[in-house]
Each structure stands twice: as structure tokens, then as C-alpha cells.
Amino acid sequence: MERQILHIDVNNAFLSWTAIELLKKGSKIDIRTIPAIIGGDETRRSGIVLAKSMKAKEFGIVTGETIYSAKQKCPSLQVFQGTYSKYKEYSNKLYNLLLEYTDKIERYSIDECFLDMTNYLMNAKLIDKAYEIKRRVKEELGFTVNIGVSNNKLLAKMASDFKKPDMVHTLYPSEIPSKMWNLPVSDLFMLGRKTVPKLDSMRIKTIGDLAKTDKLKLIKKFGKHGSLMWEYANGIDNSEVNSKVEKPKGIGNSTTLPVDISEIEKIDEVVLALTEHVAYRLRKYGMLANVVNVQLRTNEFKDLTHQSKLNSATCSTKVIYAKAKSLVHEMLKEKKQIRLVGVRVDGLVEKDELQMSLFSNENSEKLEKLDSVLDSINQKYGYNSVTRAGKMEVEKLVKLKDSQ
DNA sequence: TCTGGGGTCCTAGGACCC
DNA sequence: TCTGGGGTCCTAGGACCC
Asked: How far apart are CA A98 and CA A59, in angstroms?
């Protein structure tokens, strides 16, 4: 039996949700109706466009470009900052509404969900349900969504990306040639900025061109990715709507520094601050890490990463920091101007599935106790209420940001 | 005051082993 | 005693997503 899939995509999510918050606080203008964006902080060198209003889009402003450049396109542009915790609340409201229709929901991101309605339609038509959901979200939650309707996730997602906002679109397999093949390859999911020019040089310009290209030729040139792009261009996607909440496979924090720094002692302090945040999150998940990874971005935007496997899985800040620090020192044998520092842990495993014997030695126990004391204080009074020696300076230098 | 931050997955090369 | 081949693990880098 054919699957009945919906893709729900919040229109300009961060901007819409911020607009609602501002109206609640008594603002006279709805920023959805003026040229406005949600942006990072230019003074902290993170000034990029995170979301834009339709009016801002009319000026040619695109997500990801610098606020500086956006302002050049539209001098009257209004810039607002976002609040991630608020966005999470709106995301949850949407999710709870969708749960009234099916429990087979995949939360693809904070503002996108896939719904498998196959066993929940009774005698209703899928498209009618889509219109009903769209209307209810608007009336009950106050923002608009686009909904894509089809038989698999890829086609539903492509459909929700058609004309915006506040629209329902179908993209059934029979509609692929008329609705999808005329689009440029860059519109296809999983075709990014590096691949598009390569396809262009092969005279593959539209999704239709790609669909009709010999699959083996694509595999030869692009490997697995070639196979995937050919299947997507032909509307083939057998992946399931995954409603399980997946445990993370890695956890990382990174920060762009207010100014480039080259002094290794200062970088160490940043690494410590980031490690504390990462390890805290790791412990909150009740997981242990097997790999520590450090990222440095130079002033010339060159990204360097080093990683190293630990002797045994850990969630100890001290152990992770020791490894991260040694990796950084390895990377900075030659002096470099550093713009961004990142720490992440990978190879995560659940704590209880590991032999507890690994923690039997006295030293680990002490470290774990210290960490859990710090965690409980942090939990009670908010993150960053406890700092270790040497961190105060960094806290002044690097204020950890909300994570997206 | 030009270019975020958090993820997942894939690839290629080297080390090491049989 | 001058050159194979397969397999696994580890690491660095890159592509893509929101």
C-alpha cells in the first residue's frame, strides 16, 4: 500500500515566532509585514541572516548572508535577535497539535516535521487533512506553514518548498515531470553549493536533466552521493518516517572569538570553557564519549580538525579537557591567528551499557563526583553559575551562545 | 562591524594484522 | 628476502542539512 506522507514546514520560523513574541509584548508592528530579519551579533562577528521576512526576501536577501550585505540591499532593514528557548516552545506547540493526527511524526528540525498518515486517514483524503492542519496551526498557534503532500518523504519535502507562504502543494510521482523536472538542480534536496557547479559542467542544469542522466555515470563521478542524487531526481525515497527520539552520536560546542587570537594560553581557556559545556551536556544525556575532537578556524577561514580516541569512554570534564588541550597544542606548533574554537565529543555510548568496572578506579570516581556536584549546582542556579579557576577571564572574552 | 553554530554521513589514506 | 591482497581501525577533511 502506498504511504501517505506530509511534510510540515514553518514559514520563516524564527522570524514568525519572534513576530508573535513582539506582538505579545505590545509591539505595534508585525515584523512579518516589513523588511526584517533575525540575525546574529555583528559585534561578536556572528552577523549573518538566520531568517528573513517575505518583504526582506523581495530585496534579494538570503539566509546565511552577512547582515552587512543584507543592509546594503535594504538600508531600512530591521534586525532582531532570536531566542532559541522561545523557538523550542513554539516547536513543541506545533508538535503537540500534529500529534492529534498521527503519532508517526519525525521531528526533522526545530521547524520541520514529517507525518506518516498511512494508517490514520480512515476515509479522509490526505490533502484535506493537510488543509485542515494548515488552517488550525494558523488559527490556534498564530503562524503559517507550508505543507507538502506525497507518497514519500523526499517528494513531500520538495513539495513544501514550492510557493510560499501558507500553502499546501502535492507532488505525487505522476506529477514529477511537470512539477519537479523543470526546476534547477540546486533546488533538489542534498544538492549543495559544491555539487551544483560540477553538474553544470556536465551540462546537467535541471532536476529533469539529472533524472535522465545515466545512474552509473553519476556513481562513477560522485560515489554514493551520485546514486542518491539520481534517485532523488527520480522521486525515489524509501526511508521511513522515524518517530523515535534518537540519542545523539556526537555533542559539540564552538564559538567565534570576538577577535582573532594566537596565544595558546588564551586558546586553552576557551577550550576549557567549551569542554565544560560539552561535558555537562554529555552527562545530562547519561552518555560517555570515546573520541575527542577539536576544531580551529584560522583568520583566513581555513578549518583544521584533530581528533583522538580515548583509552576508555568518559564524561569527565578533566579527562576530555586534557585530551582537547593536547590536540590543540599539536595543531598550534606553528603560530596561527585563530578565529573560531570548537570542542566536540564523538563515539557516544550510553553509560549503563558500559561495564561499570571502567569507573571502579578511585580517580575516576572522584572526578565523577566533582563533576556531578558542579552539575547539580549548575542545574539549580543555571549554567555557568559555577566556574573553575582560569575560566573567569574567558567568560569575559567568550560568552557562550544559545545553541541552535 | 564580511562570512554562526549544531549536527550527520562519507571518503581517502595510513597503520597494522594475517 | 625487493614488493600481494584483504580486512579493520583510526584520523583529517569535506559535503550537506537546518
From this structure: 34
